[in-house]
Write a structure and sequence with these properties.
The chain has 257 residues and is α/β, with parallel strands linked by helices. It folds into two domains: 9-185 and 223-249, NAD(P)-binding Rossmann-like Domain (Rossmann fold), CATH 3.40.50; 187-221, no CATH class. 49% of the residues lie in helices and 14% in strands. It contains eight helices and seven strands. α1 packs across α8, α3 packs parallel to α4 (102-130) and α6 crosses α7 (205-216). The chain is globular, with a radius of gyration of 18 Å.
Length: 257
């Protein structure tokens, strides 16, 4: 299927590792030019060298209030347009609600939620011009509360509501806004959780992985490629009737409507 993404321009935040890295690779393979943002300059540089189209790295901490404006300015200077913004940055701390500090909560919102708010706000006028789209990479924690994921679930729920808010505005201005909720995806972050479960229960890594999948009610973990393929679909004109869509890609982990 031709997604008609050749020579379109995308921004991917949180692009140095995991899902964001694979999203960048897939969109580049589809012919898009990109600006990729994360804090690790070295990993971003490696990523740009592995992509077939023009990819510009921007090492930045998106918790900085001024960073989103700089990111959008760089993209416009380099390419003159923005067709798609993928808000993917942000990891939140897990732990006991009573042990999580004010700083933990502030950090969780600063990177994942507020960076998405600021990037979307600054990019919006350019997306109106191209009739482009925003794709928020959120998480299943925003749909189902979990005692060990208080910050992440709360931030994710806020991002899902933001998706609906911006989609409502986008109906009138021609900007499509959608979200993807990844479940347990094979990334470095998931591997750390498996290692923790392994050490706490005296299990091998393979046994711990099997146990975690069983606890989540799924047959296997997902692959970053499966998320990236969905991003390419939502970035393309093939998905023009998707507006405010929240797509759970979680192997059936989410049981609610």
């Amino acid at each position: 299927m031709n997604l008609n993404l050749t020579n379109k321009v995308a921004i991917v935040t949180g692009a140095s590792r995991g899902i964001g890295r694979v999203i960048t690779q897939v969109l580049s393979q589809e012919g898009m030019h990109l600006v990729v943002a994360a804090r690790s300059a070295n990993l971003l540089q490696e990523l740009t060298c592995a992509c077939p189209t023009k990819v510009i790295p921007f090492a930045v901490d998106l918790r900085d209030e001024q960073a989103p404006q700089k990111l959008i300015n760089l993209t416009i200077q380099a390419f003159g347009q923005i067709d798609c913004l993928i808000n993917n940055a942000g990891a939140t701390k897990r732990g006991d609600f009573l042990q999580l500090t004010e700083a933990d909560w502030q950090d969780g919102f600063a990177l994942k939620f507020y960076s998405a708010v600021r990037c979307s706000r600054v990019a919006w006028p350019y997306l109106v011009k191209t009739q482009g789209s925003i794709i928020n990479i959120v998480g299943v924690g925003g749909r189902t509360g979990n005692a060990d994921f208080a910050i992440g679930g709360t931030v994710d729920a806020a991002l899902l509501n933001l998706t609906k808010v911006l989609a409502d505005r986008g109906i009138q201005e021609g900007v499509r806004v959608n979200a993807i909720n990844p479940g347990a995806i094979v990334t470095d972050r998931l591997q750390l959780r498996i290692q923790k479960l392994s050490s706490e229960n005296g299990l091998s890594l393979a046994e711990a992985a099997t146990k975690m999948a069983e606890q989540l009610g799924i047959q296997r973990f997902g692959e970053p490629q499966e998320i990236a393929t969905a991003v390419a679909f939502l970035a393309s004109t093939v998905s023009n009737y998707c507006q405010g869509t929240i797509l759970d890609i979680d192997g059936g982990q989410t049981k609610t409507l």
